[in-house]
Every structure is written in structure tokens, then in C-alpha cells.
Design a protein that fits this description.
Blueprint (H helix, E strand, L loop, with lengths): L10 H27 L2 H7 L3 H26 L3 H22 L2 H10 L3 H23 L12
Length: about 150
């Protein structure tokens, strides 16, 4: 029996760095949301309610925290980093489902002449596709034979 010893794959480090970059991007988006939420004209034009603002803030903060911690753990070849990022993606998807039934859906439906159900369905479908693709990208280190995760 021959056992080949080689260094672990760097896929976990690369994906960890990408996840941390995604978290930093979400920090910028959350700051932009706070600036947009402070303007009543933007809120009225887009149809944002107080509940939408709270859910969007919870979504942003949860994604930032889970992606930062999970990305750092993935850089250190910890399997729990993958789990943490997946939990963040699930929380973000659930928040997006709640947001798709909010006040902004009504204004978008009026703008395009569609029913609110169609707009909510399209929003949930697009969010599901994006969350699934992100989940598959995060799971790449699990698909490699010598991933080095502990």
C-alpha cells in the first residue's frame, strides 16, 4: 500500500478569502442601506416600511457576522467555517423571503403592471437560485479529496 503525502489543497483558503470579500461588500451595502433608509423620499418612492428596514438590517448584519467568522475559520482549514457560512446563507435567504412580501413588492408590481404574487414569486425564485449558487461555491472545499479541513 502506497500513501502519498502532499500538502492540503488551498481551495479552503481561496474560498475563505472570497467569503471575507463578500462580507466586506455587504458592509458597504449595509452602509448604503442606512443612508437610503434615512431619506423619507426614497422610502416612499420604493415603498419601504419599517418592517422592511428591520429585516434588511438583520439580514445584512447576520451575513456580515457569519461570513467574516466563517471565512476566517475557512482560512484556518476549519470545517465549522463552511457550516457557519451556510447558516448565514440560509438566514439571508429566509430574510429575503420575508422582504419579498413587503411594501416594496407592491410598488414594483404597480410599476410593471403585474400582480404582487408574481413579483414575490420572481423575487423568491431569483433569491433561491443565488443562494444555491453561493452554497455550491462555498461547498467546493468539501468536493476536493485532500481538502485539509479539520
Amino acid at each position: 500500500q502506497v500513501i502519498m503525502l502532499q500538502p492540503p489543497s488551498s481551495a479552503a483558503k481561496v474560498i475563505g478569502i472570497l467569503v471575507i470579500i463578500y462580507a466586506v461588500f455587504n458592509v458597504i451595502v449595509l452602509i448604503g442601506n442606512f443612508l437610503a433608509f434615512s431619506s423619507e423620499t426614497i422610502n416612499d418612492e420604493l415603498g419601504y416600511t419599517t418592517t422592511d428596514k428591520i429585516i434588511a438590517t438583520i439580514q445584512g448584519i447576520s451575513i456580515i457576522i457569519t461570513c467574516m467568522i466563517g471565512g476566517i475559520w475557512m482560512l484556518n482549514y476549519r470545517r465549522k467555517g463552511l457550516t457557519m457560512v451556510m447558516i448565514g446563507l440560509i438566514i439571508g435567504f429566509v430574510c429575503q423571503i420575508f422582504l419579498s412580501f413587503g411594501g416594496s413588492t407592491e410598488s414594483t408590481a404597480k410599476e410593471f403592471g403585474l400582480s404582487e404574487g408574481v413579483v414575490s414569486g420572481i423575487s423568491i425564485g431569483m433569491s433561491a437560485i443565488c443562494s444555491a449558487v453561493c452554497g455550491l461555491i462555498v461547498a467546493i472545499p468539501l468536493m476536493i479529496s485532500n481538502n485539509g479541513l479539520r
